[in-house]
Amino acid sequence: MIKQNLLDKAIAFLSPEKGLRRLQAKATLSYFNNSYEGASTTKKTLKNWFGSLKNSDRDDLPALKLLRARSRDLYRNEPVVTGAIETNLDSVVGAGLKVQSQINYEYIGISEEKAIEWENAAEREFNFWANSVNADASRKKNFFELQAVALASALLSGDVFVILPGIKRDFWPYETTISLIEADRVCNESDMLDTEELAGGIKTSAYGEVVEYHILKSHPGGLSQEKEWVKFPAWGKSGRKNVIHLFKQIRPGQRRGIPYLAPVLKHLKVLGDYTDAELTAALVSALFTVFIKNENPDMLFDNEGELKLGAGAIVGLNPMESIEIADPKRPNSAYDAFIKSIIEQIGVGLNLPYEILMKHFESSYTAARASFLEAWRTFKSRRAWFVNGFCQPIYEAVITEAVLQGRLEAPGFLDDPFMKAAYLHTTWMGPAPGQINEKVETAAAALRVQEGFSTRAKESAEMNGTDFETNVRKAKRENKLMKDSGLKEDK
Q1: Above 60 in pLDDT, residue 302?
Q2: b (16+ CB within 10 A) / e for 85-95
Q3: What is the H or E stretch that residue 322 is in?
Q4: How far apart are CA 81 and CA 75, in angstroms?
Q5: Is residue 226 part of a domain?
Q6: Of all helices (H) and strands (E), which one includes residue 210?
Q7: DSSP code at position 388
Q8: 238 alpha carbon, distance to own chain's centre
Q9: Which of 36, 122, 293, 469 has the greatest number of C-beta atoms within 10 Å?
Q10: Does residue 127 surpass a pLDDT of 90?
């Protein structure tokens, strides 16, 4: 119940209608303040806190340039940031994610043996293309090396763009190439102001579908002073994506990605500044700085003279002079605890446990394994996002070209989208988390397979990132070699 104060009563006496509206407003405010404390506007800690209710474009786009610049600066200069990004690269893509073709042979209508032959042929064609620098439009890296560049760019800048230009090259059968576009190059033509239709260099339809990208021919921060834009339609006439936009979407209608480091930039800057201050203080302490204190105003210290300190040395001073030693009280006993606390908060923001972020393992086996599992949930999720957004579309483009050229026979591939999807079904293999206690974890894996909770293929991939079928074929050849050499007897 809302109580009337003297002012309320006075207003109600002079104007009952205004008095009623005043009481209704107070009742509404009281309702929200009492239902959620987080929505209170009267508590001292909350009354000056007002969040934003803008859409993603208005919230994100004005801050993106500065967020990108600061993220890249920290990566260049802060070891914790460099380690966080490199840990993601090593764990998500490593030396490169490898494809395994797994076609739906039952839908296609072929035997399992024919399916295996087609899968091997498809993998052979793709790996032939992927292992060459001809896969890169700039001929600098192969496909597997480009994966790390694309992921690092997406993490630091928030997003990265990929176009697949067709380039004819001598003595090379494929025209499909990869050209990575850094986030800064995608911006509104002629630096026009953002609108509902065109914002952040991306033009959308009334339904929010991306229809066009505005891409600068050269980097806006590069050596070229000329600005020339190219407009890329989002989709080609064949239905293939002209531009691959790799970013993590959090909000409906979001056009551009936010840098991975954005939530912890403030903490990282404070961490860096504090560490620099502590290093400086420790350096001063190590240098054993000495000041000459002169109480005689008529006697000036000869700056050209030298005061040398040595082991067991006795140094004479002038009358009325004394020595004071600079003591910065270093090392700071509270340094480790404070730094660890800040880094733990940074780890939460980056979804990396402290032990993984800092490569520092002093806890028990159980705690260490819990950290590994927590980190690998993140890495597996990020790998699936990267595969769907980068690897798979490129694989599909290359295999489609192989079919068009007749290098792969795939009846129905070009006519039926369901048939095409059946041919293009894959899984991607990457770095494995490894094992902390190999004997215990291997026994557990064997038990899961035995009880039907898992498969040998899955356990091989998660133990050491290998393919079970390949392992078996190689083991068969090795066993034959051992037997033929006389090193292994028949049982």
Answers
A1: no
A2: bebbbebbbbe
A3: strand 321-325
A4: 5
A5: no
A6: strand 210-216
A7: I
A8: 32
A9: 122
A10: yes
Q: Which residues pair with 198 in a beta bridge?
A: 203
User: Which residue has tokens 């993490």?
Assistant: 155
Q: Which residue has the tokens 């898992």?
A: 454
Kindly state the tokens that stand for 342.
Answer: 């800040």
Residue 91 and residue 96: Cα distance in Å, rounded? 10
Does 463 reside within a domain? no
433: preceding bond cis by omega (within 30 degrees): no
Residue whose pair of structure tokens reads 């959620």 in the numeric block: 36
What are the structure tokens assigned to 29, written together?
A: 């405010």
Give backbone dihedrals phi and psi of 216, rounded to 5 degrees, phi first: -70, 140
Residue with token string 């880094």: 343
Amino acid at 70: R
Tokens of 298: 């008529």
In the block, tokens 């990605």 appear at: 257
Read off the pLDDT band of 309 (50, 70, 90): low
For residue 438, is pLDDT > 90?
no
**% of the chain beyond a pLDDT of 90:** 55
Name the nearest CA neighbour of 471 among 457, 489, 491, 484: 457
Instruction: Tally Cβ neighbours within 10 Å of residue 300.
Output: 8
Is 307 contained in some domain? yes
Count up the domains in the chain and report the number.
Answer: 1
Q: Which residue has the tokens 């509206």?
A: 21
Alpha carbons 8 and 185: distance in angstroms, whole number: 59
d(CA 400, CA 421): 11
Q: Tell me the pLDDT tens digit for each residue of 152-206.
A: 999 999 999 999 999 999 999 999 999 999 999 999 999 999 999 999 999 999 9
Strands (E), 75-116: 98-101
Task: Return the structure tokens found at 399.
Answer: 């295999």
Please spell the DSSP secondary structure of 72-127, one letter per residue: HHHHHH-HHHHHHHHHHHHHHTTT--EEEE---HHHHT--HHHHHHHHHHHHHHHH
Let me know how long the chain is: 491
- In the DSSP assignment, the letter for residue 262 is G
Instruction: Specify whether the CB–CB gap between 291 and 301 falls below 8 A.
Output: no
Domain-embedded: residue 295: yes
Structural domain harbouring 320? 264-349
Q: Is pTM beyond 0.85 here?
A: no
Which tokens is 33 given? 């303040």
